[in-house]
Design brief:
heterodimer, A: mainly alpha, 10 helices, about 75% helix, about 0% strand, B: Ferritin, 8 helices, disordered C terminus
Chain lengths: ~200, ~260
């Protein structure tokens, strides 16, 4: 009889197989991490393109191209991350939930991520429209990338906490965050301070 | 008339390869020093994934508990009073879920678990098989399961409190809650003889002072060091590049201010 207990256990527990979709969730998590990395590098490259701080090493063209490639990667991986939840076989999210922020019943961290993603999408779509609008207006929209990145980073951090992945990703997450935060901070420092710390050349002529 | 920077530029002597590599050597030295300092910290975080012997004991205990309590639950549904039937069903279902989690974690951590109940547990099952349906079975069922749950509860609590493995901790939390729930359900049958249970073996001296909760100091140190290393390093590199470029420009023509303020 003892031999049959194990069989009985297997039989009973077959109905309790995991009620999740590990493949789709794994892909969504990978896309989220790739998007986060690309996003942080996009911001860093963007600041370096705008300020010309490393132009002597790379040239502006190469910096700008890399910035655009990274931005495209951010959006593609971000889109895959969102769509991953639409294609879950068990309890999928609706497209409405995934792309419309502030719906009733939507978690705040999701709304924040959706807003960040859509602002970035708007920036990407308008990046090539500079000649059709005033430069100031275009620049204003392009600079919305800073709060968009901050919101998406919050979405990423709260997501990893909620899913219990923080212990796995925190070190990589912070390592990628620091360069972006450093150059953003330097970017918005007054010119006089930048001159004093040697990031802006002295005006002598 | 030449400006000050042009004069400086004329006197500027291009640095040799050795001079140029000095900052890199300094950076490398700082990086290696910080990494050496962080080594104990990284070792402490690595412990969170290691599987100890006690973690293996936890998986074995939960697995074997399921292996005899699920058949007990099935028997309770056949031989017990209506209340015991409900309790038996609930325990069987709960252990079904726990068993799935146990086997998944066992496979993930590569820590094999038995697929048979222990000799003692087989004896308890034999008692239940021999008991007559109705109150006699109810008594054997409630007391055997309550006593076994009490023993597992203590082990689970100890392992939950002390394990270094994150996944085992989460698993022990679920197991601990399940065992607590089962004890409550078994006691609700009114059949449990509390005087037959072993007396609690707890130290009567004052409880030791626990470590303060919050972030691990090694983690704070890692974050601080990263900010210093990556942020400071990036700033230093930018400054070096900018400085070299400034000097190079100064040799050619007067410098102009570049703040980059007109771009995104």
């Amino acid at each position: 009889m003892v031999e049959t207990w194990h069989d009985a256990t297997i039989l009973i527990t077959q109905q309790f197989q995991p009620k999740t979709d590990p493949a789709a969730r794994g892909l969504a998590a990978f896309a989220a991490r790739a998007s986060y990395a690309a996003m942080m590098l996009t911001l860093t490259w963007g600041v370096l393109t705008a300020t010309g701080w490393v132009r002597s090493v790379t040239g502006r063209k190469a910096l700008r191209s890399s910035h655009m490639v990274l931005a495209t990667g951010t959006l593609i991986f971000g889109g895959i991350h969102a769509l991953g939840f639409f294609y879950l076989t068990i309890q999928p999210y609706s497209l409405q939930y995934l792309f419309l922020p502030f719906l009733s019943g939507q978690e705040t961290r999701h709304s924040v991520g959706i807003v960040g993603f859509e602002v970035m999408l708007a920036i990407a779509l308008t990046a090539g429209l500079q000649r059709f609008t005033s430069y100031r207006r275009w620049l204003w929209l392009h600079r919305c990338a800073y709060p968009a990145v901050a919101l998406t980073a919050l979405h990423a951090w709260f997501g990893s906490i909620a899913n219990g992945h923080l212990s796995v990703v925190w070190l990589g997450g912070i390592t990628l965050l620091i360069p972006a935060a450093t150059v953003s901070l330097l970017r918005f420092m007054p010119a006089r301070t930048l001159e004093r710390i040697g990031l802006v050349e002295e005006q002598v002529a | 008339m030449l400006s000050a920077s042009e004069l400086t530029g004329l006197e500027f002597d291009p640095p040799s390869v050795l001079d140029r590599s000095r900052p890199l050597v300094r950076i490398l030295f700082v990086v290696l020093t910080v990494l050496a300092l962080l080594a104990p910290g990284s070792a402490s975080t690595a412990q969170t994934t290691a599987v100890s012997d006690t973690d293996a004991v936890l998986l074995t205990k939960v697995r074997q508990a399921g292996l005899w309590e699920m058949p007990s639950g099935m028997m309770a549904m056949e031989k017990g009073s209506p209340l015991v039937q409900k309790v038996g069903f609930a325990i069987m279902m709960d252990h079904g879920r726990l068993d799935v989690a146990t086997r998944a974690l066992s496979a993930k951590l590569n820590s094999p678990v038995p697929d048979q109940p222990s000799e003692e547990q087989r004896g308890w099952l034999a008692e239940q098989v021999a008991a007559a349906p109705g109150p006699a079975f109810d008594r054997v069922f409630a007391n055997r399961l309550r006593a076994a749950h009490g023993a597992v509860f203590a082990v689970l609590a100890q392992l939950r409190a002390g394990t270094r493995n994150d996944e085992v901790r989460a698993f022990a939390t679920v197991g601990n809650q399940a065992v607590m729930r089962h004890m409550t359900m078994l006691e609700s049958t009114g059949m449990v003889d509390y005087t037959a249970l072993p007396t609690p073996a707890v130290s009567t001296t004052a409880a030791p002072v626990g470590e303060p909760l919050g972030l691990d100091t090694s983690q704070i140190a890692v974050v601080g060091a990263l900010f210093l290393l990556v942020g400071g390093g990036l700033f230093y590199v930018l400054r070096q590049i900018k400085g070299n470029r400034g000097r190079a420009r100064a040799t050619a023509r007067p410098a102009t201010a570049r703040t980059g303020g007109s771009h995104g």
